[in-house]
User: What shape does this take?
Amino acid sequence: MHEFAGYAAGALVGSRLVMGLIGSRYARFSQFVRGPRKTIAYAAAMLRNREPRHMGHNPLGGLMILLLIFLVSLAGLTGWLQTTDAYWGVEWVSEVHEIVVNALLVSIVT
Ligand code: HEM
Ligand code: HEM
Assistant: This one.
């Protein structure tokens, strides 16, 4: 169950990456992924309750999407590695898996 769910999550990330490139307007990364300067400016405005409205995702939402994509991918990758001959039973791989999954849980709650 665990492995199947993990690979399914990886497949969903894969399809989201494709949608981010060729999907509808507000699904595209180019529409909502912003550089550090704009993201920090947005966060600063948010702290003052003065953030502008955005169609689709705001810059912080875009950053969170990148983070979630990264963490789910890394969870899947380090999970799969533990099933390979080369990395089976290798301590640091399962430790990274655990840290990534905990970071994922914190991110989801956030
Ligand atoms: C890896 C897991 C998850 C991912 C990738 C994810 C992703 C997202 C995204 C992209 C949005 C839209 C944010 C926006 O409007 O800019 C969203 C909204 C939301 N998610 Fe998740 N989510 C995850 C897990 C969860 C879980 C476990 C729950 C509930 C237990 C949840 C509840 C919600 C709710 C209630 C919203 C609407 C928030 C709002 O409109 O203010 N999500 N999520
Ligand atoms: C989003 C994807 C995934 C999530 C959220 C997840 C979550 C977890 C969690 C919470 C643990 C327990 C960590 C601990 O306390 O030791 C764990 C362990 C483990 N996971 Fe995953 N996992 C994912 C994907 C995968 C995949 C794709 C595989 C293999 C194909 C995998 C294989 C394993 C193995 C072998 C362990 C045991 C490691 C150990 O005890 O040292 N996981 N995973």
Remarks:
- The chain has one domain: 2-109.
- The pocket of protoporphyrin IX containing FE (ligand 1) is lined by residues 57, 61, 65, 68, 72, 108 (CB under 6 Å).
- The two ends are 26 Å apart (CA to CA).
- Residues 2-109 form one domain.
